[in-house]
């Protein structure tokens, strides 16, 4: 599960929310972009740099505005050299924020949704293949206009629907001119 966040009010990142990860992690690459120490403490591990960040400000897009959550000074991030993602929010973060993950489906609209609810605020999750923000394999730099751009999924869906509608109308008018009904074709006939 992924969510777009704004780190330190300026760096847009696609963050992995991993319920199986005990710790929160941050890549050395993203840490270097922060240009501050954030209360580093020493720790040791295989891929660990040997430091931990405290008090990192994370902002989530809620109702078209970037908002910080409280108590971020209590949440630690371990710095890794070569992680799969620039940032991972694990069990530690989920527990501290008392987060609730909600997967839903609307039978009326056949739309699925996933969100995290923290202190009554609903933060939508994004699809795994979405490229709106970066993992460590992507570029981290984004302009302010990209950050403030609303989600284009609905717009893309409407464009796709319009194209389908136009194609269907064209196909329908072709079938009318030949006198056949395209939706009643019997595939067994030659």
From TrEMBL:
<protein>
    <submittedName>
        <fullName>2302_t:CDS:1</fullName>
    </submittedName>
</protein>
<dbReference type="InterPro" id="IPR021109">
    <property type="entry name" value="Peptidase_aspartic_dom_sf"/>
</dbReference>
